[in-house]
Write a structure and sequence with these properties.
The protein is built from three helices and five strands, in the order E-H-H-E-H-E-E-E. About 40% of the residues lie in helices and about 25% in strands.
Length: about 120
């Protein structure tokens, strides 16, 4: 099983998702329940599954238009992992998780609900 690394961007994306659901609460009273279910699934199902089988997501290419912070993060990780970093996206219900991995590490990059427009 791979060692899991949570990036600041991943933590920030969870904060943004929590705010997104808080903003939706007036329109959809049960909105927070879905987010709570996702955060529970992260620890109990999603991360353990990705750490055991990281190749299950859809492979992504590093976009040339990636935000500078994302480029620095990913390019900075290329050195420690020997240049073999693979970036993927995996969907769970209505949520997407972007991650990278090599032979040793699973690096959580970002997460979002499909309705969020500020996905990075």
């Amino acid at each position: 099983m791979l060692k899991v690394v949570v990036t600041e961007n991943f933590a920030a994306s969870l904060d943004a998702m929590a705010q997104f659901y808080e903003d939706q609460r007036g329109l959809f009273p049960g909105a927070g329940t879905r987010f709570l279910g996702f955060t529970e699934a992260l620890g109990e199902q999603i991360v353990p599954l990705l750490a055991r089988q990281p190749g299950i997501g859809t492979r992504l290419e590093l976009p040339l238009r990636a935000r500078p912070a994302e480029q620095v993060l990913l390019l900075g990780l290329l050195g420690p992992v020997g240049g073999a970093l693979i970036v993927r996206e995996w969907f769970f219900d209505q949520f997407a998780v972007k991650y990278a991995y090599d032979a040793r590490l699973l690096i959580l990059l970002s997460a979002k609900h499909h309705s969020q427009h500020d996905y990075r």
